[in-house]
Design brief:
There is one protein chain. With 110 residues, the protein is of the alpha+beta class. Helix content is 35%, strand content 17%. The protein has helices at 7-12, 58-62, 71-84, 90-103, and strands at 4-6, 22-26, 36-40, 65-70. The protein has a four-stranded antiparallel beta sheet.
Length: 110
């Protein structure tokens, strides 16, 4: 993808995204559904697209983004949320995403 979109678009369309790409979000972590983010195929970056450390994509550093999660994990988060709540709202997906990010575990909706 290597372009910018809002987090809600990633969560809503997670199943259509390539599983082997990575989500980068603002470094301040004041994330919302409207947070501007980027999905980057880290494996296809050449050395000119990486910072001197060899691990950070330049596009991420230039736009003050940090690695959040890989798309395969986001797909699992969305799938888990939709299994629990077949009529998931964007806010449910966001809650599930944040829960996983901070707890390394799937949310259990009440």
């Amino acid at each position: 993808m290597d372009s910018f979109t809002e987090l809600k678009n990633i969560l809503i369309n997670a199943k259509e995204l390539p599983w082997n790409e990575y989500l980068f979000l603002p470094i301040d972590k004041n994330w919302s559904l409207d947070s501007v983010c980027s999905v980057i195929n880290w494996d296809q970056l050449d050395e000119n697209e990486l910072e001197d450390d060899g691990d950070t994509p330049k596009i991420a550093k230039e736009n003050k983004l940090i690695y959040a999660l890989d798309i395969a994990t986001i797909q699992e988060i969305v799938d888990n949320a939709q299994q629990q709540r077949p009529q998931c709202w964007e806010s449910d997906l966001f809650e599930a995403f944040l829960y996983y990010y901070y707890n390394d575990a799937f949310i259990t909706f009440k």
